[in-house]
Amino acid sequence: MGVCELCGKENTGVFNILVSGAQISACATCSTKRGFSIPSRETDRARTSVKSPISKTRKTRPTFEAASDFHIRIRRAREAGGMSVEELGRKMNLRVQDLQKYEGGSVPPDAVAKRLEKALGIMILEEVEANDVSPVVKRSNKSVTIADMLDDLMRDASND
Fold it and tell me: Is pTM beyond 0.70 here?
């Protein structure tokens, strides 16, 4: 029981509604005047007693990641095609500096990797299994830094 903030009626059931962008408590009469439907007690009981089983499984899209030797694949395919970096850059409308970075080990954006795959006839992106991903676990209320993750990796490697 509460007070309607619109008409001032006391000791009445109030509902939270939006009026001009502000959330206020209003009685059933004021709420219906403003176009809000008030749930009846019977529909409330029906809603609480009937529980529909909602499936929690979602179909996830496969995750792709650059292969560990993608830069070698790019260089070998370019050389096998008899192209220089400049020729491949002209063909794909990419800067020579970017292609040199990719051949040097910088991971290209997915869109560029797909274009390279198509132009060179190679596979750069590989599907990553969900099991291959390890979650980052916070051990305290401190934020995790790269140094913390490196320490964990080094500790795990020394235990092997």
Answer: no
Between the alpha carbon of residue 44 and those of residues 8, 50, 104, the distances in Å are 26, 10, 64
Q: How many domains does the chain have?
A: 2
Structure tokens at 75: 């260089």
Which among 48, 68, 81, 87 is positioned nearest to 132, based on CA atoms?
68
The CATH number that applies at residue 102 is 1.10.260.40
Interior angle at CA 140, CA 138 and CA 146, nearest 5: 50
Contact status, residue 159 vs residue 153, Cβ threshold 8 Å: no
Domain span at 14: 1-41
Q: Tell me the pLDDT tens digit for each residue of 120-144.
A: 999 998 887 765 455 555 455 566 7
| Cα–Cα distance, 103 to 3 (Å, whole number) | 71
